[in-house]
Amino acid sequence: MGEAARALDVSVDTLRRWDKDGKLSTVRDERNRRRVPATEVRRLGSRPPRHRTGGSLSARNRFPGVVRSVEVDGVMALVEIDAGPFRVTAAVTRDSVEELGLAAGVEVTAAVKATSVMVDRT
């Protein structure tokens, strides 16, 4: 099962759960160990590839845009970015503003990685 889990980029526990839930067909060998047939690995592995970040950061949500404004206060700063039809506001350190040379008109990419996203009907 370990080899199948690696091929599918899931854990062995996930394969066991799929087997229990009927989402995966396994066979038992002579020692009663579960085995995942190659046909099942191919079937389950035929999903579309996951979106790759394309950069060194792990955040997948990227919004290219232009800095609208930078407000520095003490050690922190607020950076407003016009990203297409959206405005993204980022709270960053003063050091980051200086190191990145952030100022109005500078082209940037806002990389967003959130632990939760709230959705509201419009």
Explained architecture:
With 122 residues, this protein is α+β, with helices and mostly antiparallel strands. The protein folds into two domains: 2-44, no CATH class; 61-112, RNA polymerase II/Efflux pump adaptor protein, barrel-sandwich hybrid domain (OB fold (Dihydrolipoamide Acetyltransferase, E2P)). 25% of the residues lie in helices and 32% in strands. A four-stranded antiparallel β-sheet has the order 5-4-3-6.
For the largest beta-sheet, the strand count, sense and barrel status come to: 4 strands, antiparallel
| Uncertain stretches | none
CATH class of the largest domain: Mainly Beta
Q: Give me the number of helical elements.
A: 4
Classify the helix fraction into a percent range.
Answer: 10-25%
H and E string? HHEEHEEEHE
**C-alpha end-to-end distance:** 46 Å
Q: Return the CATH architecture of the largest domain.
A: Beta Barrel
Radius of gyration: 23 Å
The assigned structural class equals alpha+beta
- CATH superfamily descriptor of the largest domain: RNA polymerase II/Efflux pump adaptor protein, barrel-sandwich hybrid domain
**Gross morphology:** elongated
Oligomer: single chain
Strand content: 25-35%
The figure for the number of domains is: 2
Looking across the biggest beta sheet, what order are the strands in? 5-4-3-6
